[in-house]
Design goal:
The strands form three sheets. Strands 3, 4, 5, 6, 7, 14 and 15 form a seven-stranded mixed β-sheet that branches. Helix 7 packs parallel to helix 8. Helix 9 links the parallel strand 12 and strand 13. The chain is α/β, with parallel strands linked by helices. The chain is globular and about 60 Å long.
């Protein structure tokens, strides 16, 4: 099969290679998927770039998310899955060296979900880590129906899914953005209110929006950078679920303020999230995309032989959605 890989970390054009690799066979509890689209996350390019850790394996095929068609199943796996369109996540994670940037991938059947015929493979490849992270963070403190949720960075890959899922689940959604263009994107996804954090006092605007009450829950893209505003924006017994903290990786917590407001703070790292939460996310996302009322943002598409350019597009940091490699 055709595949991409790297044997050392470094710049995309220096380390990524394209060539032939043995087609895998599904092991115990696994399915073999003919990959049609491979979604690239910032963590995928970060691992290839060597920013976070040295090589975990001698050879790595990058990218964790994707979509395709099940072609083979292992013994004791439901044969009814053969021929089914699926989306998947965690391809190159949790002990797996070979991800979705290849014509085939073998995966535990637990990591795949049905892809409706109304959703294209490229769109399906955007769902994995961004959509799953959004769901786990959104429902970290329980149901959101009838509640007010603040999603920071509501035009980003994870943020836009959090906005849409929150609205689908019956919440009033407030989101922060940095431009009129991003505000329009978030509103198209269902945001009830947008706040330009570069020009407005976020906590003040939230008090105005909520009649002084504050929000029930925050889905946060930058815990350290947003902590002060988030605490001021929350009502008593509110909660924060964060999935990144680039603004300040080691923030100082105002313990007294958190205690006085009885706030709950929770970090979210998808591979380490409870299995039950991940299964619920898969089921809910599949139901949601089946409604047709959704925006699955593909920021750009590249053929497999241009995977280096695709990784570079993610590294630039100006994408709106997920960059996809068409396999």
């Amino acid at each position: 099969m055709r595949a991409a890989w790297y044997d050392r970390t470094g710049p995309a054009r220096e380390v990524l290679q394209i060539g032939e690799r043995p087609t895998p066979a599904p092991g115990r509890g696994e399915v073999l998927i003919r990959v049609r689209a491979s979604g690239i996350n910032p963590s995928d390019v970060g691992m290839r770039g060597g920013a976070n850790a040295p090589m975990a394996y001698p050879r790595i095929t990058p990218n964790s998310d994707g979509a395709g068609v099940v072609e083979e199943v292992a013994p004791w796996v439901d044969e009814g899955l053969i021929g089914k369109r699926v989306w998947f996540y965690n391809g190159q994670r949790n002990g797996r060296a070979f991800g979705s940037a290849a014509e085939y991938i073998e995966l535990d059947a637990d990591l795949i979900s049905p892809l409706p015929d109304s959703v294209g493979f490229n769109e399906g490849a955007t769902l994995g880590i961004p959509g799953m992270t959004a769901h786990v963070a959104l429902f970290a403190a329980g149901p959101v129906q009838g509640r007010v949720v603040l999603v920071t960075g509501g035009a980003g890959a994870v943020g836009l899914y959090a906005v849409q899922l929150a609205k689908w689940a019956g919440a009033t959604v407030v989101t922060t953005v940095s431009s009129n263009e991003k505000a329009a994107r978030a509103k198209a996804g269902g945001a009830d209110f947008t706040i330009d954090y570069r020009r407005e006092d976020v906590a003040k605007r939230i008090r105005e929006i909520t009649g002084g009450d504050g929000v029930d829950h925050v889905v946060d893209v930058d815990f350290g950078g947003n902590l002060a505003q988030a605490v001021r924006s929350l009502k008593l017994s509110g909660s924060i679920a964060y999935y990144a903290s680039k603004g300040d990786p080691a923030p100082v917590l105002a313990a007294g303020e958190l205690m006085r407001k009885n706030l709950t703070v929770r970090g979210v790292l998808l591979p380490n999230s409870p299995h039950e939460a991940r299964r619920r996310a898969q089921a809910d996302i599949t139901r949601w995309i089946s409604t047709g009322d959704r925006t699955l943002a593909v920021a750009g598409t590249y053929p497999l032989h241009e995977i280096a350019a695709a990784h570079e597009a993610v590294e630039r940091g100006d994408k709106a959605g997920t960059v996809v490699v068409e396999v």
